[in-house]
Amino acid sequence: MKKTKKTSKGKNSKDKDSNSNSIGKNSKAEDLKMNSESGDGQFLTTNQGLKINDNQNSLKAGERGATLLEDFILREKITHFDHERIPERIVHARGSGAHGYFQVYEPMKKYTKANFLQNPNEKTPVFVRFSTVAGSRGSTDLARDVRGFSVKFYTKEGIYDLVGNNMPVFFIQDAIKFPDLIHAVKPEPDNEIPQAASAHDTFWDFISLMPESMHMIMWIMSDRAIPRSLRMMEGFGVHTFRFINEKNNSVFVKFHWKPLLGVHSVVWDEAQIISGKDSDFHRRDLWDNIENGNFPEWELGVQIVEEKDEHKFSFDLLDPTKLIPEELVPVKRIGKLTLNKNPYNFFAETEQVAFHPGHIVPGIDFTNDPLLQGRLFSYTDTQLSRLGSPNFHEIPINRSLSPVHNNQRDGHMRQTINIDKTSYDPNTMGGGCPFQAKAVEGGFTSYAERIDAKKIRARSESFFDHFSQAKLFFNSQSKPEKEHIINALIFELGKLKSDDIRSRMVGRLTFVDTGLAKDVAAGLGIPVPKPEQPINHSIPADGNPKNFQPANIDPPVEKSEALSMKNTIKKSDTRKIAILATDGVTDKTFNSIRSALLNAGATPAVVATHLGSIVSSKGSNIKVDESLLTTSSVLFDAVYVAGGKESIDAFLKAPESMEFLNQTYKHFKPICINNEGIELYNASDACQKPSDKNDEAKLAEAGVLINKSPEEFISAVAKHRFWNRQMC
Ligand code: HDE
Predict the structure, then answer these.
(1) Pairwise CA distance, residues 430 & 200, whole Å
(2) N or C: which end of the chain has fewer CB within 10 A?
(3) What angle do CA 540, 542, 545 make, to 5 degrees?
């Protein structure tokens, strides 16, 4: 076999494993051991290994003299610093990553020969990167946007990347429209406004002319676009892929990630406040939970469609603006993803990781989805300019754990030192190495799909149903979810300068639901325009656009439970609870709620009028986590107002405590009030207040608990939000 070694010229044996640098895929303790064995961290050196004696002063002509050009230590340090930035990703620039592993539940060999999907005892290392799409690297986590959900599996057969999103469909059907979509959503080119937001004219101008985007628009206007946590969102492969088994039989497959904490979101007003209070909210939440051992988990689900059933649906399986309702094809859960380790270094891992939907392994293959086909070109191409070299696969986070042997050579920043003379195939001088692998030896073979077609630049008529699944999504939402979609549309379209675009967009909504269009029009203060068939800009095969007007097709099912977050898993685990308590807090209630929350797996934090520590009514010292000035209610899932006259009196004098309660109430979050705490609640703007026991019972239904047990509070926390709460 051909020999390679890495950055160890003349020091190590010839067959040093080319993939030895697998930092991140080991435990932290193993990685630290590797580092200390290599002697790292002893002395400060230059990049040439020279020990540095003074890192505080540059070399000068006299103590007060000019700096000398000779100072190679200064020059090296500044030069490196000058080149520390690389281009950010064209899309999905803002991201957060984590390491973990994947384990299949049972062998999947009936459907696929993919090795990592066979052995339930085997853990395949993974690196996952979540992202927003439109914003720049430093933009807010809480933008209304799709979230990227990319998983790199380091399998024994090479790298497999599942590069998906937290929504199961996409805006466009054909890759050729992607640059148009992204140009439209990114900040406008004259003034680079707005950052990480779709609420501007160019986006809605484009969308109003692209009827195929309407299903995705429903998702993006829904609360799915403002997740509570990256740990609480679904993931989807979006396109239909293929599974191939040992016998070379193929089935179609749609991939799903189902979070074990359920799917939860914040409300839009809250999202906007979080963007100011903590624009790293999602990144911090992921990091802190992994550090605290609350490892996020998702189950991998598959919807499998036999080849013979390809055409049995009212939509085309190759159309990425369509999902397969779970009522028609159930999701089979086949394994679990666990994220258990934070990166050591953001740049080296999260920034330099390079995903590609074309990184596949035997047993998985593409379909002819025209959006997927275009992606297969784009990802390597973009890494060439982003990471600067065709050798980006040698960056530690991108390295395959299975050996890499080929005749590719040289290029910028090449790490491997190939020691053979032969870099061509066939050869005899290198013993013929490396050899091609037969399919039985694990060699990749493309699925032999039969193709009999003429070359054509057109779109299939089966792609021209643009509204049926937008209707399905809207109809499947609960009442509050529908209201949030309406309000999101009013917000977004309300930001437009162009009346024409606004009106055209409302016209498009009439094809989804006339009530929706009416409500949005009312919020915008405009009449509902006369429904006008949207123009489709793609030219059909016969060149006659009339034949290709979007068909008015009924949804494949009337409603789908899986599309509403109302039906999701509800748990109190890992929820962040603010305990409002300051000097004079009653010991008993404070201690019992804090220990009950910790036992329930939640994360309580003491929010006081000042930092440091507080003294309870019985004189105990309690450490304060945050003061009213350093935090905000939007950073918590619920609030507990602990009793104690002195404590409540102090909060009554602090205006921020009113804002804290007002926002918790307004954002429909659980509130629990103990004894004297009722005075604080009564002083707030909450419009449901108790005057007798009946009111208290009604308030409890609306998630405001007065003198209830810790258990009742914890079960309210698990419910996430109380949409039945009255707003004034
Ligand atoms: Fe991407 N996409 N994309 N995309 N995409 C990129 O690749 C592209 C599409 C997705 O965390 C880029 O390495 C084209 C759909 C994720 O590093 C770029 C088309 C879906 C990420 C690119 C699509 C995605 C990217 C930018 C239309 C959901 C972040 C940086 C044909 C299934 C990966 C990079 C990460 C990133 C191109 C459409 C998901 C420019 C041309 C559909 C999650 O290559």
Answers:
(1) 60
(2) C
(3) 50
Rounded distance from Cα 162 to ligand 1 centre (Å): 11
Q: What value, to the nearest 5°, has the Cα angle with vertex 534 and ends 532 and 539? A: 140
Instruction: Spell out the SS3 assignment of 703-717.
Output: CEEECCCHHHHHHHH
Choose, from 19, 99, 115, 165, the residue flagged as catalytic: 165
- Give the number of the atom of ligand 1 that is nearest the alpha carbon of residue 97: 11
Which protein residue's CA is at the shortest distance from atom 27 of ligand 1?
175
387: its two tokens: 């990471």
Task: Give the nearest ligand 1 atom to 320 CA.
Answer: 42
- Ligand 1 cavity residues, CB under 6 Å: 89-92, 95, 129, 131, 148, 150, 163-165, 170, 175, 178, 238, 353-355, 371, 374-375, 378-379, 382-383
Closest to 627 in 3D by CA, of 608, 605, 642, 640: 608
Structural domains in the chain, CATH included, are: 20-51 (no CATH), 59-398 (2.40.180.10), 472-563 (1.20.1370.20), 576-718 (3.40.50.880)
Give yes or no: 92 in active site.
yes
Question: For residues 124 and 153, is the Cβ–Cβ distance under 8 A?
Answer: yes
Residues 683 and 653 sit within 8 Å (Cβ to Cβ): no
Per residue in 540-581, pLDDT tens?
Answer: 666 666 666 677 789 999 999 999 999 999 999 999 999 999
Q: Which atom of ligand 1 is nearest to the CA of 379?
A: 44
Amino acid at residue number 187: P
State yes or no: cis peptide before 670, omega within 30 of 0: no
Model confidence pLDDT, tens digit, residues 313-347 = 999 999 999 999 999 999 999 999 999 999 999 99
Instruction: Provide the token pair at 718.
Output: 């698990």
- Nearest alpha carbon to residue 140 among 263, 353, 288, 283: 283
Question: Atom 24 of ligand 1 has which residue's CA nearest to it?
Answer: 164
